[in-house]
Amino acid sequence: MAASTAPQPDPSAIGRIPKPPFAHVPGTEALFATRAARFEALAGGGHGLAPYLGFLAGLTRVQQQVAAAAPEPAMPSSGQLERARTHAMPPLDRAGFSPDATSFAIVAAVIEGAAALPMPAEAGAALARLQSAERPTLAALIGNVLANAIPPDEVAEHVFIAAALQVDFARRAAKLNAADLQPVADGVCPCCGGAPASSLIVEWPRYEGNRYCACALCGTMWHYVRAKCTLCAQTGKISFREIEGGGRVKAEICGDCNGYAKVLYTAQEATLDPVADDVASLALDLLLRDEGFHRAAVNPFLTGY
Amino acid sequence: MNMDISRRRFLQGAGAGVAGTALGAFGFGGVEAAYAATVKEFRLFRTTEARSTCPYCAVACGMMVFSAPSAETGRMEVVHIEGDVDNPVNRGTLCPKGAGALDYIRSPQRVKVPMYRKAGADAFEEVSWDFAMERIAQLMKEDRDANFIETNADGVTVNRWPTMGFLSGSSCTNETGWITWKVARGLGMLQIENQARI
Hints:
The complex is a heterodimer of chains A (305) and B (198).
Chain A: E1 23-24, H1 28-43, H2 50-69, H3 78-86, H4 101-115, H5 121-131, H6 135-146, H7 155-174, E2 196-201, E3 211-215, E4 221-223, E5 238-243, E6 249-254, E7 259-265, H8 276-280, H9 282-290, E8 294-295
Parallel strand pairs in A: 2-7, 7-8
Antiparallel strand pairs in A: 1-4, 2-3, 3-4, 5-6, 6-7
Chain B: H1 5-14, H2 22-25, H3 29-39, E1 44-53, E2 62-69, E3 76-83, H4 96-99, H5 101-106, E4 115-116, E5 125-126, H6 129-147, E6 149-151, E7 157-167, H7 174-187, E8 189-193
Parallel strand pairs in B: 7-8
Antiparallel strand pairs in B: 1-2, 2-3, 4-5, 6-7
C-alpha cells in the first residue's frame, strides 16, 4: 500500500482561510516605482517634511532606474543556499556580504543618477565626496551600512550608499524563491538577516489582516504575528500609540524592551509604503522619543532616530 | 531578535542632534526643526490590541479585542472585535455570534455579579461571591450526603454521586479542563459537561 499517495485532509481548503505565505520577495522595479510614487504623493500633499520627501522621491526614482538597468547579480551557489536552508540562516546574509562588481556598478549608477537631482549643498557635497571615492573607501562605507554602524559625522554619504544597497539586495532577493524562505529568528529578515523598516497589516486577497514585516534592506516581506514585539518577540506588554485622528500609522510599543516599531494599516489607505510612510510619520518618532521609547526599526532615511 | 539597538542607542546618546540625523546631514535641518516644532501640538493616543478567546462555543476561535480611550470618560473601552488572523483555528474569521461580541460586552443586560433568586421569590437580587460560593457548597453537600452511593448491590465500592452534574465552560483551557475533571470526579460526579465536542 502506498499510504503516502492517499489524499491528506487539508481543512484550509474548506472556505476562505488558507495559511498565509511566510515570505514575499520584492519585484524590484515595482518596489521602487511604488515607493517613489508614494513619496511624490506625500511630498505634494502639504506635508511638513515636503522638501525632504520630494528629495527622497527623486532618489527612489533613481533607484528604480538603476534597478531596471543594472547587470545581473551573481547568486550564492546552490550548495550555499542549501546550507543556509539546512541551518535556518538567511541565504543572502548581510553580515557575510562582500560587494562584487555588480554592487559597485549599482553604487556608481546611484551616485551618478542622484547627481542630477536638485538637493541642498550638504547633500551635494557628500555626493561629490562619493564621486571621487575609490573602491576601498566605498567598500568600507558599504560595510558600515550593512553593520548598521553609520558614523554620525558621515551620515549623508552612508545614506546614499544605503540607497544603492537597497537596489542591490532587492535585485538579489527577487531572484530567490519565496517558498524556500523560512523563519530565521523573530524580527529578522529571512532573506538578508536585516531588521524591518516597519510592518504592514496587508489587505492581500484572502490574507486580509495579516501582518508582514518589510525589510529595510532587501524589501522582502515576511509574516509576523500581530501584537508581538518585532525587537524582543514578547507579547505581554504590547500597546499602541497613534497621533489623534491618524489611525493609519501606529507605533507598536513593547513594555518589556521599551522599543517600538510602526505598523501601517493598509485597510485605511492602500498606498501606504513601509519605507516612505515611516519617514512621513516622523512626528510619531519625535513624540515617542520624548516619552522615553526607542526606535526598534531601521530606515536609512531616518538615520539618527 | 535583532541586535541593532545598542548601536543606534549609542548614536542617539551621542546626541549629535540635527547633525546626526539623515535630514540634517542632507541639509534639511531647517525643515526638520520646523517640523519638530509643529509636532509638539499633536497629542498621542494610546490604544491596545489584545488576544482573547471567543466565549460562545467549543471551537474557541481566537479574537483580537481593540480598545481605545472613551471620549467621555477617558477610560479604556473595547471599540472593536475581529477574528485573530494568527490563530490557526479560525485564521481571522468569526461566526455571526462571535462577530457580534462587542454588543455582548456592552449589553446593559450583561451579568457582572452573582445574582440570586430565593425559592418562592419573583426577582433576582445581587449577592456577594462569598454568599454564592457558600450557598452552592452547602446545597451540594446536602445533596451529596443524601444521595452518595458508596457500594453497589454486589458490595463493590463505586463512590457515585448520581444526582449532581457539572457544567463547565466551552472556551476553558486544557488546564481548567483538568481541574474541572479532578474536582468533579473526585466528588463522585458522573455527568460532566465541558461542551468540548464540536
